Amino acid sequence: MDRCRRGDHTPYRVMYHEERRKLRISRQAAARIPLVSLRSSMRRARLENRPRIPHSLKDFDKVLRSRRYRRLSRTMDGKDNVYAGRAGSAADKTISLIFVTRRMRRYMRKVKRIFCDGTFSPVPRGMKAYQVWTISTIREHHVVPLVRVLMRRRTRKAYEAALEKIQALVPQFKPQHIFADYESGEQKALANAFPDADCSGCLFHYAKSVGGKSKKLGMTKKIKDSPHVRRVVRSFCALPLLPQSYIIRGYNSLLKTATKKRVAATILPLANYWQTQWLNKVHLLSVSGCEDRTTNGSECDNRMFQDAVRQARPNCWDFMDGVLEMEDCTHQDIAVMEALRRPSRIRSTAAVSNDSKIQALTRQLEEGLISVRGFLKTASYTIVGAFNRGLNGKKKKKNV
């Protein structure tokens, strides 16, 4: 109970077994006081030194800024504070809370490549907040979350307010390449905040969207039954792997292939969707030449953050525990990398092989050794997993 009152962030189960082992009592004696009988008391003890749960971002901000409760956002090593203040206004619903330590702000000055992604499950319940938006980077193929933003809404104005606050906190933060989802408000806000940066979308989300649209258009059976339909639809997913100046040419080559193979009537609805949804985003589509082509690193961080808060839609204090735990792990990972060691597993053989294949195809295309159509046909196999996710959903079905 004393550990809970002191604000120990250790999970109840781990804490219980640690203390049980320290006491060196028999299992029979410990069985008389199981964890389930102590959990409620441990929770009450942990909440004794915490204020009443706030029910708006404005109230949450007041609690975190108050001198009395500054310890709630103090890092686990006690050397920094994770809460950096409020952005936007509650009146126009652009309010956001910014979580980034001073030491991370110093690190951000040298970051040149960022990934932006939002997640919904860790958002504190009853808070009138919409998403947790995370800006991260990749170092040695390891994701490093930089800033977390708890947002009231995800409008362009809300993103702009959050980015304005982040730039005020770190004026030297000037990324050169930005990867984000194709959300219009987010992309426009990022382009305005960092006009000199190159902005790209996420290949995984694009291919998944094409697969999902194919399913909605009722093409699933024809994709599985017809190799020509399957090849053309898969090639649509590979369009972002082309250099930007080749993408329209690639789209036209797919229409010609569909006509030649007599499947144009089947492909036409998907082609119309592509023209409506993606033609005006060609400047964001191309990931050719990029070291990273997706925001999957951000998705990985989202999963780890969800594990850290330990439940979907937690209360605000469990949310804070998750923020603090992830900050501590990230700070340690940076220390490991600066010691020239690897904090995570090496990349899979498949990922390395795909990179080599795409690089070789791009060189051959630019040297005129293969056609755009040949590039798309071969490159489409490297993104088939994301396409199948969109076509089949989360259930594991036979790949196409």
Order of helix and strand elements from N to C terminus: HHHHHEEHEEEHEHEHHHHHHHHHHH
Which structural class matches the secondary elements? alpha/beta
| Principal-axis shape | elongated
Helix content: 40-55%
Number of helices: 19
Could you write a compact summary of the structure shown?
The chain is an alpha/beta fold.
What would your notes on this structure say?
- Residues 115-208 form the MULE transposase domain.
- This protein is an alpha/beta fold and 400 residues long.
- The chain folds into three domains: 2-47, no CATH class; 57-202 and 294-337, Ribonuclease H-like superfamily/Ribonuclease H (Nucleotidyltransferase, domain 5), CATH 3.30.420; 203-291 and 348-392, no CATH class.
- Helices cover 52% and strands 10% of the residues.
- A seven-stranded mixed sheet has the order 1-2-5-4-3-6-7, with helices on both faces.
- Helix 9 (203-216) runs parallel beside helix 19 (384-392), helix 12 runs antiparallel to helix 13 (264-277) and helix 17 packs antiparallel against helix 18.
